[in-house]
Write a structure and sequence with these properties.
Helix content: 25-40%
Number of helices: 15
Radius of gyration: 22 Å
Shape: globular
Largest sheet: 8 strands, mixed
Strand content: 15-25%
Structural class: alpha/beta
Length: 488
Amino acid sequence: MASKVRILSNVFINTSGNKLKLNDIIFDEKIVQIIPKLNSTVNWDDISTKEKLSGFVNGLQLKKLPASSQVIDGEFLLAMPGGIDSHVHFNTPGFENRDDFEHGSLASASGGTTTIIDMPCTSIPPVTSLENFQIKLKAVKQRSIVDFAFWGGISGNDFTDGKNIQNQIEELAKVGVTGFKAYLHSGMNSFRELTKMQMQVCASWIANNKKILAVHAEDKELITNSMISFQREGRTDWRAYCQARDESAEAQAITNVVDIAKKTGCKILVVHLSSRLGLNLIRKARKEGLDISAETCPHYLYFTQKDFENRTISNFLKTAPPVKHEADREALWQGLKDGTISFVTTDHAGCNPAKEKSSKNFWEVYVGIPGAEHRIPFLFSEGFFKGRLTMEETIRLLSMKAAEYFNLPGKGKIEIGYDADLSLINLWDEEVIKAENMHSKGKYTPFEGITFKSIVEKTLVRGKIVADRKNYPEASTGYGQFINIFGK
């Protein structure tokens, strides 16, 4: 049955910088037409407060469209392309006591994200072969409310077990994984790290298949030596953990990654970048013409190690790599501004905090934050509203750049022919973050009590409302579709 054409009326669309245009969007599953309501653009400064917006709207004297099931009142909100979060751990099938695709995808939708790419390492079995991929797809197929893709993975376990990893990479590339995730240091027995030489060999195979290698870049030897030394001293505090995984561990791993990129020509993404040292190495490599980039996450852009002194959130804030220092945080913002960092992801990885975030021994505390629904409000609040980013830069980092980088068909733009994936953002209101309001299984966050100066009001995936703060959504779990991604 053909989808009915609908109208999203009176929404602002960013045109460039901090300029917007008031439009109606005609759509079914895809965007059919964009109709300007005014000939001119509007400067954000002219509508930046509730009072200014009200005066602007009252002066328009627009005819209101009749209310019907075919008309969605956009209420003069910002419409941005649906968010794309290319780094999440939703754990289905596998560690579903921590999170699963139903809860994780609902959290994403509630936070304005319409497409996610799930990591291979926290599934059982991990997505390292065609057989495991098929198990994963079957398990997830009816359990997501947003569209989704998968990362393939390369585990050190498969080297140990003598698997034909080159063949596994080729088979996974053919079924449309986005790329391949590998670790230079891993804490998971079911998904071990690779040596530098193993990583280099795999990078060559990945390059031959025109795919991306995503690397968790921390140096195993540096971390292990420090960790053993601290534990012998009986140190179980957060400082020992952070010192063991300091900026030098990230920088050494990125140095190795850069060398691999030089030798193989592989397109490489450094995931969850946390330090100024690492950023500068990537910036230098990019200037030399290497196809290497990075992502970072909200926690690295907000918190520093001083925040571990706050016992209320200290365990909640534990990630790998850990957050660093003020100079690192500010450098990461600059990396977003100058394009060294390609996009902002969440590395969403939740758990039951009562069981896994409560130990007084910091080494034993679970590593991960469930951040899927906070990313978009965070970046508008801390990036756009604080003048670190323009509105255009903010939106590109949340959606467009990931769509381009991963070659996601029909995603990342509000243009005719693209999927009607839309997030309606209220930039004139704010919300205090509370764990009890979260939609993920694990209800905890280091952002507890912090105010974000924007709210996601509605999220549409392929023309259907999948999250709505004021009304029931139109689609439910199972609506999300798997996206095949093929190399250019």
